[in-house]
Amino acid sequence: MKYKLTIFDFDGTLADSFSWHLRVVNEIAEKYRIRRLGENDIETIRSFDARKAMSYVGLPMWKLPLLQREMQQRMAREIQQISLFPGIDQLLHCLNADGIALAIVTSNSLANVHRVLGPKTAELIRQYACGASIFGKRAKLRKVLRTSGVHSSEAIFIGDEIRDLHQARAEKIPFGAVSWGFNSIDSLKINSPDQAFASIEEMLAYLTR
Q1: pLDDT class for 1, splitting at 50, 70, 90?
Q2: CATH numbers and ranges of domains, the chain
Q3: Distance (Å, rounded) from C-alpha 157 to C-alpha 163?
Q4: pLDDT of 51
Q5: pTM of the shown model
Q6: Residue 157 pairs with which residues in a beta bridge?
Q7: Is the Cβ–Cβ distance between 160 and 181 less than 8 Å?
Q8: CA dist., res. 21 & res. 163, Å (int)
């Protein structure tokens, strides 16, 4: 079937921000008393879900909102360092032209998302559900479905993390895993996504089939 609604995660899915996040986390690691990440650590945590990754770096749950807020504020100041993955702009324009409704569900701020997308591409997105807590995307997904009037089976959530997959599954929304984000594609496939994408071209072909 052809999905009526495609919901995207933002960081690591549309925006190439993984290396930026890693750099900033290491810069503020001492402040939050968490583990700095070396190259070997990075490959290790890419196979972990969010809770296990937090445990690995020693980040307690109560510090998470503080860290998330600081990261968003830091990104706002350094937004020129963040860009869309090559081909994402064309992907969104093609999906919109094909009559597929587009939405974004993210933990990032609306202002950051708009600035990275740029005004013309931002206009293609019918719904923004921003500012979700790390484990709070399920409620945002439910709201997007309700506002769209689309059944969960007629939508797909596309993301780069195991937590995205689990929250989509909780709302019975098909999940598409991308190979270029935070979690490795192998770790995502272990969790049985409905579809896995090795490239943006493959994603476009699948969504417009």
Answers
A1: low
A2: 5-16+83-207 (3.40.50.1000), 18-81 (no CATH)
A3: 12
A4: 92
A5: 0.94
A6: 7, 175
A7: yes
A8: 17
- Decide if 11 contacts 107 (C-beta within 8 A): yes
CA dihedral 52, 106, 40, 20 (to 10 degrees): -150
**Distance of alpha carbon 191 from alpha carbon 85, whole angstroms:** 24
- Tokens standing for residue 80: 């020129």
Q: To which residue do tokens 């939405």 refer?
A: 103
Tokens 């549309």 found at: 14
Q: Where are the beta strands (DSSP E) in the chain?
A: 5-8, 101-105, 127-129, 155-159, 175-178, 195-197
To the nearest 10°, report the CA torsion of 53, 197, 165, 2. Answer: 170
List residues bridging with 129 in a β-sheet.
Answer: 105
